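Example protein was shown:

_____
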Amino acid sequence: MSNKEIEQQNMIKRQSISPTIDNLGEQVPSSKEAPAEKMDIAQKLILASLGIESNVSLDNFDKQLEEATKTLPRYKQIEEQLKGKKNEELPYELFKTLKTNSDKIKTDESTPRDGSLITSMKQGNLECAGRTLIASTYLQERNFNHAIVSAPGHAFIMVEQSPDTLAYFDANNNLFFTFPRQALEGYKGVETTSECSLKEYSPRETDFYDGVSAVFSDFITMPAKEGVGRQYLGNVSAALNGNKEFEMSNIEVDKEASRATQQIEEEIYGKNEVLDNYYSKVENLINKQEIQTDDDRKVIGEIIKSYPKHEDFVSFFSATLDGNLGTRVPYIKNSSKEQKIAFAEKAWDSFKNKENKIEKPQIKDGVNFVFEQNPELTQIGTKEQYSEYLDTIFPDSKVRDIVYHASSNKIEKFRDNMFGAYFSYSPIQGVYGDVINNVLLNIKSLLIKPKPEDSTEEKVIYDKEYRSYNNPSFSPEGDRIYKYDASVENSTVTKEGIQIKVRNPEQIHILGSEQDIENFKKFVANENET
């Protein structure tokens, strides 16, 4: 393999520790430079993700990323919240406002959920890369020395609190703690890329912690501007590559453009041998981290199961911190017995809060009937999982119920016709056929039939709107524009006396179809992985 191929292979491995992505799948390294048209696609997507016109150049990407970050609602909120705080308090106060437990905005499930590109973050979605970008931008603005951390599958910040004290700032995992600088082996300061390892240490009286999460012990630190820039471009590359975290981002997969984005990254920041060396062994680090995380879950699960009472749990758990489990929380391992007991109390509260927040999923009306008709669904997941999966389909539709269409044969795709397609709110057989097709509908503008008790004026308006239902207006380009995409009408055959009509086949998702079954498999697989 040539030197160029080795370099590009390392760039690909880099994505596997990028904050929101797992790996670049089938991407194949190439010794050739990306074609000009792919470079153009990559540049336009980078700019679009920042909310910048595509005719602008990337000559000052760091400044463009900074300015885009400052437009985020969460960034502006943090600026307002931290007004008047003392300078020495800012890093920890920033952590408290940015950590996951402080999230108050309920995000729209239909928006991009990667939480790392500006377009997604504007909707309120934040993942580790997004929180790191916001925190770093805020700290850079105020001249706080800090480095950007890339760990296996994760991103966070290392703040220089003082010449001999560092702060581990991981907002996505709700963890902040201070520790002696000498405990971070390999660290060379905020201006140098360093491969680091957090070693065991004894907390000093001035050290403190907030959180109960395990730490990442092996990682790489980078200068702030370079770190957030490389991470951002790495996520753009991952989106173009089709990584699953970006499925809702409406970014068309283009693997050549993905490689072009990596080339843009190298043009902006140059080569970095320390990074390349780290990425060459990142797969082993990821495997080690996954094994360790699984072990942690098993051990803690067994402790909770064996010691379900509060006092027993605290007593046993605090004692285990002297052993291997303690190495995962070095900020408490060598603390006093009293501090370990206090940590065990916090751990108990954290575990119980998580248990209380987990609500038992409900089975959506109509799902039992769907499972009766499609028994293969039971081999994929539960009715509760299927109900949750259905909530992801047409989340903004005005009609969220499962509805029904009778036919002589099972329908895999509805045909387009001038009359539309009709559905009932409960199954009916015999009139139009004995096969019941269960569907969800995507309805944005619904013409609703008035109730008998409604006013005469409302009924007159409805009659007028109904008569013009199929009469479109036209855009300047000549496209047809309909005021309503569905209507509720009278019916002599349904139990409710009404039926719902939709205009286009694209508005119909058929439950139990090949597409539906495949999508449910992906949903369950992703849920299990999470």
